[in-house]
Design brief:
- The chain is mostly helical.
- The chain folds into 2 domains: 102 residues, Orthogonal Bundle (Rna Polymerase Sigma Factor, Chain: A); 107 residues, Winged helix-like DNA-binding domain superfamily/Winged helix DNA-binding domain (Arc Repressor Mutant, subunit A).
- It is 65% helix and 0% strand.
- It is built from 11 helices and no strands.
- Helix 3 crosses helix 5.
- The radius of gyration is 19 Å and the shape is globular.
């Protein structure tokens, strides 16, 4: 049995580095296993950034191709997943830029611009976005509200609260410090709570009781 076959039969994602080393040595099956591990995660992230399934699928395909071509450059200083997600995000931004025909677009610039869109007052009865995502019957409402955020804040929320990455991992992927990640996550939550509040008002205008 080849090394890649052994990995495919029962190894955890923590064994990425061994698969990467095998891939760097020319084991195509080892890289295919890495693709299987991360294709769905990358597609979710790319779709949240681009708001377009076709663009997201193309971005992920191009991310894997670029990752394979640049595999020799991966030194193991960061997690392979962090390295790969960063490539996928860059490809997603490129797709979004082309679709919007914008000359310049970056997650950093859009997040800074979104500072001006902070709600001044958010009803304290509005549901927490993280809790809402966990309720399957209400997830579509949150996804729709997420799509209304700019890509900078949306991406931070998705990486932290949808994909479950740590603040440190998110900072590394986006090239930010942890304080900036926490700040953007806070702003994303505020904006989401304001956008979600319209779905949870009673007909008479009184806020309903929602268990937090």
């Amino acid at each position: 049995m080849s090394n890649s076959a052994q990995f495919a039969t029962g190894c955890a994602p923590d064994d990425d580095l061994a698969l990467v080393h095998a891939s760097q040595g020319g084991d195509v099956a080892a890289f295919e296993e890495l693709v299987r591990r991360y294709d769905r995660k990358l597609l979710r992230i790319a779709q949240h950034v681009t708001n377009n399934l076709e663009d997201a699928e193309e971005a992920v395909q191009e991310a894997f191709l670029k990752g394979y071509r640049k595999l020799k450059q991966f030194q193991g200083n960061a997690k392979f997943s962090t390295w790969l997600i960063r490539i996928a995000l860059n490809e997603s931004i490129t797709k979004l830029r082309k679709r919007l025909k914008a000359k310049e677009l970056s997650l950093d610039e859009t997040a800074q611009a979104e500072d001006h869109d902070l709600p001044r007052d958010v009803a304290d009865w509005a549901p927490n976005p993280e809790q809402l995502y966990g309720a399957s019957e209400l997830r579509k409402i949150l996804i729709g509200s997420l799509q209304e955020l700019g890509p900078g804040l949306r991406t931070v929320f998705v990486l932290r609260n949808v994909e479950g990455l740590s603040t440190n991992q998110t900072a590394e992927i986006l090239g930010l410090n942890e304080a900036a990640v926490r700040s953007r996550l806070f702003r994303a939550r505020l904006q989401l709570r304001e956008k979600l509040s319209k779905y949870f008002r009673k007909p008479d205008g009184e806020p309903p009781h929602i268990q937090q």
